[in-house]
Amino acid sequence: MPSEAEYITVYLQDIKWNEPSITLQVEPQYTALDIVKTLVNKTRQFNHNSYELAEIFVSSGQLCKERRLDMSEIPYKVQGLWPKGGALAPDATYRFYLVRKGGPGGFLRSLSWTDCNHSLDASLDSYFMKFLEQKTAGENYADLCSLPDLNETTLLENLRQRFYTDAIYTYNKQSQQSHCGSGVEQTLLGAGPVLEAFGNAKTVHNDNSSRFGKFILVDFRKNGAVHGASVEKYLLEKSRIVSQSTNERNYHVFYYLLNGASPENQVGLLLTSQRVA
């Protein structure tokens, strides 16, 4: 049975094409050589031996690192090691590029991370510059936070234009309260003690001691660079659920759940007023 196909996007550096990148549907076991051959054939180049794949990392349009892939490497697996979502800064990105072997200035092949060559820097600069383009002056912005340059001159000019177009106020006041008047803010604030009750307990030294622990797992690449991390919360004392030391109590949530028990049940479970934390 054939394996499930995946998609890999490769950007073109030295090849003229209708689009800046090509997305290929590949098998997970395809090597870099397989993908180079496919791209060279698709873009009607003559010799696939003149090209190779490069893994590029760019951050803030300033830091640019590249690593030439060995032809036997599997790009799909390399792509799987890239950080996802919040693990990357908003302006950071990983990409594959199809580049000429050697590159400008006789670039020597290296399987480790090096600074990008100048031609690649230029193409990446043009990509990031489109995010920095500012709208033309004199435009009417409905939200002052959207002004491209926030200073006294632009603020007054935008307010003047909004005044002449009868768009003086940006927002209408809206109530965030529910029908009972508690409001979203109070609901969120009220949820804090309930959530903490699953891991907080009364101890000899503290009536509301947090018994949560955090396990931080950091993943590193072979070259020592960090490429991901995860945080796992856990209870430091699971034994507290079934037994407690003198003058200590169970987790608060235990008493929350049984607070509505009948007086008979409270006595039977040793949950009298003297025992409640």
UniProtKB/TrEMBL annotation:
Coiled coil: none annotated. GO terms for cellular component: actin filament; cytoplasm; myosin complex. It is found in: Cytoplasm. It comes from the Eukaryota. GO terms for biological process: intracellular signal transduction. SUPFAM superfamilies: P-loop containing nucleoside triphosphate hydrolases, Ubiquitin-like. Residues 1-277 form the Myosin motor domain. Residues 4-103 form the Ras-associating domain. GO terms for molecular function: actin filament binding; ATP binding; GTPase activator activity; microfilament motor activity. Belongs to the TRAFAC class myosin-kinesin ATPase superfamily. Myosin family. This is Myo9. It comes from Bugula neritina (Brown bryozoan). The lineage of its organism: Eukaryota, Metazoa, Spiralia, Lophotrochozoa, Bryozoa.
